[in-house]
Amino acid sequence: MDQYADAGDGFDIARLVPGFRPPPHPDTAGAGAAQLRAADMRMRCWRSPLAGPLAPGSARHRDAVCRMFRDTFNPYRPAVLDWPALAPATLARIVALPIWDIAVQTEGKARLRMAAYAGTVLDPGMRAALALNAWEEHRHKEVLSRMVAAYGIALAPESPYRRPADPEWAYLVTGYSECIDSFFAFGLFELARRSGLFPPELVDTFEPVMQEECRHILLFANWAAWHRARLPWWRRLRFEARVGAAWAFLAWERIGLARSVGSGGGAGADAAAGQTRGKGQDNNFTLHGAQSVASGDVRLSDLLALCLAENDRRFAGYDERLLRPATVPCLVRLVLRCLPRRGGRAARTG
Ligand SMILES: [Fe+2]
Ligand SMILES: [Fe+2]
């Protein structure tokens, strides 16, 4: 199996997706505030110029999805991001967050799994979109790596990243995992912003990364719809079984049946794609981490409502004819109906 040494960082998507060309290096260092604002705006709002429906599986749908992903690309460069000086208490709070190893490794695995699957896709437009998604995960890893270096956060050594033996399965697990994690990350990020515990410059630096995850799961939801609509019924059955298995696996992982939080076990999305986790950080941070980023107690119902509102807000700028990830928002709406309302007995996170 191929191995990709990480230090360096020598990851090369073109090895997995022949013909892939990284986006050109823009001069964002010399760009004015107006240009950066325009790029940020382009990333958040997009509408296909085509009139009429975009039926999943059709060439029109595929073209719209691929064009959305291309047109909303944000050319920021990790190398020129500013890392603000932090007060000692803020620095200590950031260093103590139990997420850095898992965050860096998750991006490292996501880029490889997405690129590995992209390399198997025959449609040139969809292949290019998925390869660009992998490239953006690589950029997320670079942003995180630069941040942990700037703030002196020690990382556990990364295990070698191995090319998945079954790229479609690895991509399904990674894609649905992103749908779950991004939904909760949107709410936690807003909670952190409102708390005032983190400097606004740092929040602003990560804002494009958050919006990129929104674009990623928008792409994934539409890829899944496009892909399944084009399958003959017997392959469709197999695909739906794999989707069900991916959800079952991720649910099993996240509700903690796989391992107790922080015990350092090797189960999880890593194991699903044939890898072991290097260190037992909190892969359920999205479900347990509200107290780490909030200035006071957070009611579970308030957190879930915030996640829903942020999810809707982040998707609002994109063409409504493109499909959105629906499972997690639907489940959360259901849970919210069952939770006691404000004034009743409080259910709390943490
Ligand atoms: Fe990412
Ligand atoms: Fe992503």
TrEMBL record:
InterPro entries for this protein: Ferritin-like_SF
Protein name, per record: Ferritin-like domain-containing protein
Annotated source species: Massilia forsythiae
